[in-house]
């Protein structure tokens, strides 16, 4: 008796790419949350100010100083809330990433809902200050939503075709 090994559907490669993208966001967010906690220490903040003063004048210098000034003006409660929100996003992205990696249909739906819900905010940010990085993130997220919706529609129509041929 010969057993045939069923190959995974071709969409699995792209699902894994999206899963890696989501997991990469998780690591970046965890790093950001750790940085937020470390910035509560005044000596770390002072060292960052010292380091920022050594940067040559330019947009990077101004951006770093703006972020440090903004962050140093936050209360401890706001810093804690910011850390909580950052970790909550990391949790959501990890659930999406692991679910997509395991080819779970619910993860595809979750990713569509979460990613699509963030697109209006990304559009608004891009509208306020057009930057290449913001455009790339917006384009990637729109592509992810489009791909997943297309895949779910195709799988639903093929499932209907299989059911109608049996009946």
Describe the structure.
This protein is an all-alpha fold. It has a domain of 67 residues. The chain contains 6 helices and no strands. The longest helix is centred in the C-terminal third of the chain and has 35 residues. The two termini are 29 Å apart.
Provide the residue-averaged pLDDT: 83
The largest sheet, given as strand count, sense and whether it forms a barrel, is: none
Oligomer: single chain
Q: Give the CA-based shape.
A: elongated
Low-confidence regions = none
What Rg do the Cα atoms give? 22 Å
Structural class assignment: mainly alpha
Question: How much beta, percentage-wise?
Answer: under 5%
Put simply, the count of helices is: 6
Helicity, as a percent range: over 70%
Distance between the termini: 29 Å
The total count of strands amounts to: 0
SSE order, one letter for each helix or strand:
HHHHHH
